[in-house]
From TrEMBL:
Quaternary assembly: The basal body constitutes a major portion of the flagellar organelle and consists of a number of rings mounted on a central rod.
Main localization (coarse): other
GO biological process: one example: bacterial-type flagellum-dependent swarming motility
Functional note: Structural component of flagellum, the bacterial motility apparatus. Part of the rod structure of flagellar basal body.
Keyword Cytoplasm belongs to the record: no
Full protein name: Flagellar basal body rod protein FlgB
Chain segments annotated as coiled-coil in the UniProt record: none
Localization per record: Bacterial flagellum basal body
UniProt entry tagged with the keyword Metal-binding: no
Amino acid sequence: MIDRIGEDLGFYQKAINLRQHRQEVLAANIANADTPNYKSRDFDFSSALKDAMGEAMRLPDTQLALTSARHIPAKAVTPDPATLLYRQPLQPSMDGNTVDMDVERVQFADNTMHYQTDLTIISSRIKSMMAALQQ
């Protein structure tokens, strides 16, 4: 039963993780708006989510063998599914910075709205499961 609940919420978990990662990328763009030669970065959320959901095609994470009790356990993980791309500037600046604050603010607000929506959906699904379990 726990596996079914995990599968049900797995999509939203991956979406929330990608939204958080995108928020960090957009915040870095905004923070570096005055940095000379900084190139604005972003990724396509829908293709990153499709890649994250298609994990059955990905190789599993590699566990390193411990041959001595003094070794530190570690795990090699696959790279992040979101490939960062450079944003094409609408009007490049003289110092080489490609951050357009209007575009960044709109993308940041849009991502925040989707993040809050995903959290609301997860919360309502958990509340409905709790209500079903209490009856």
